[in-house]
Design goal:
It is a peripheral membrane protein. This protein has 345 residues and is of the alpha/beta class. The chain has 12 helices and 13 strands. The strands form 3 sheets. The protein has a 6-stranded mixed sheet, with helices on both faces. Strands 11-12-10-13 form a 4-stranded antiparallel sheet. A hairpin with a 2-residue loop joins strand 1 and strand 2. It binds adenosine-5'-triphosphate.
Length: 345
Amino acid sequence: MTTPSSTARSRTNSSRTSRRRTASSGAFPATTGMAVHLSGLVKSYGHVHAVRGVDLDIAPGEVVALLGPNGAGKSTTVDMLLGLARPDQGTVSLFGVEPAQAVAQGHVGAMLQAGSLLPDATVGELVAMFAALHRAPLPVKEALERAGIADLADRPTGKLSGGQAQRVRFALAVVPDPVLLVLDEPTVGMDVESRRAFWASMRDLTAAGRTVLFATHYLDEADDYADRVVLMRSGRIIADGTAAAIKNQVSGRRISARLPGADAARLGALPGVSEVAVHGDQVTLHCTDADAALRALLPAYEQAADIEVRSVDLEDAVVALTSAAEDQAKDRAGKLAAEDRRSSS
Ligand SMILES: Nc1ncnc2c1ncn2[C@@H]1O[C@H](COP(=O)(O)OP(=O)(O)OP(=O)(O)O)[C@@H](O)[C@H]1O
């Protein structure tokens, strides 16, 4: 069946194909090799094992979302990728050279979570200062327009709202006219309209074949804009593929309904139901067989209302995959502790 969203998706996919073609046909300054090559990256801070062995290749022209719960190691990976943190083990190369060299050549633009803007400079002055550090920057006006802040050029950066400051960071990331954009939670603090404008501008940038790696907690952004989703948990990559492939790793559908006075144990015993979540009157049934579950639910709960059956979305898949990884980590820790006890007795 063709739905508006599937039509939109196939359009997006064909634009992704042509974007790759543009990237490999040399629309940019000559670069060689993988846009990003991370091999065996490990990084600890004292007892905290932030990154525990990350291997990742990103081809020129790919748009990759880096997902994972708080503390998964996304920012640490991004910091090592940009040469801002030194790996304990492993190597990083961007277009076949060290990060510092790729940055010096103007191939890389970055937007990080931390980092204050010079509070006394105006937005225009700050972006101009940054542009002056690069060999072939965009005109300042164009960088400001791409970030949607042309009207803020004369505003001191100390007088910006959080969302506006975030857009200034975006202008600083694009002003080198980079081939690779690395964005750590780029839309944090932006209102809905600014997020939309941000992604519209990103679409223009990626349509020309730029490579993008962005970390985000907004799974709809990953679903809508990334060719590929890399999911991290506890310092490791636990899934890597298209959003569709990641969703396919988690089978089943979800039934949600308003069900006053529902009993979770009774719902859990219905055929085809694997898991139940109850929030007040609202119930979500995770199903291995949604048809069987629905057939059993309706006679048992005549008061059921606002019933919806839907496929697994990216959020469901990410939650399921990250909690499965957590269970496996606990199992591993339990087995190691048991082995320790056995060997010491
Ligand atoms: N400079 C540091 N000193 C000590 N611990 C750190 C440092 N930077 C990160 N960590 C720790 O390393 C782990 C991974 O952190 P990181 O910021 O990379 O995760 P993240 O996936 O980006 O999380 P979030 O989504 O919350 O930004 C966390 O436990 C964090 O507390």
